[in-house]
Amino acid sequence: MFDIGWSELLLIGIVALIVVGPQDLPRMFQALGRLTAKAKRLGREFTAAMEEAARDTGVKEAADSLSDLKSMTTKKGLGIDALERATERFEKWDPKLPKQAATAGAGAALTPDPELAADLDAAELAPEPEVEPEMRAKPAVKRAEGPGGSA
Q1: Helix and strand tally (H, E) in the chain?
Q2: Which distant-in-sequence residues (6+ apart) come within 8 Å of 101 by Cβ?
């Protein structure tokens, strides 16, 4: 609280001895001790009164329910950990690998299927089919029907 070392205390004691005098010094220290004890007692009473007021208003129950809410909103509680695992598996997925090797155990080595890889590469390199001009001019728009069956 107060950053007072031994040298400062010695200096305060010498100044007090000179100012107050050797006869009144013990009574002054006794009064200072009583004042310090009274201040500590008032601090403890204030703390106890604040804790009791908090108990009466339900702050503790609110804090407990907040900690329960925090425990429910963890990654595991919300299922985010499962979502992260699924995302990692999806990012590692390669469509060129055969299904049997992908579903085999973790110890199985994954080897690409050459036929599937050739088909996928050919599909990626193939040009897109031409669209007839009539279809390009009129986009097909489907109107949603209302609850009574009319648009």
Answers
A1: 8, 0
A2: 108, 109, 110, 111
Most confident range (mean pLDDT) of 37-46, 50-59, 100-109 is 37-46
pLDDT tens digits for 8-28? 988 988 888 898 888 888 898
Question: What is the spatial distance between Cα 103 and Cα 105, in angstroms, rounded to a whole number?
Answer: 6
The 10s digit of each residue's pLDDT in 47-96 is 999 988 888 887 777 777 877 777 767 766 667 777 888 888 888 877 77
Please give the structure tokens belonging to residue 145: 């029907």
Residues ≥6 apart with Cβ < 8 Å to 94: 110, 112
Transcribe 16-79 into DSSP letters.
Answer: HHHHH-TTTHHHHHHHHHHHHHHHHHHHHHHHHHHHHHHHHHTHHHHHHHHHHHHHHTSHHHHT
CA atoms of 11 and 5, how far apart (whole Å): 10
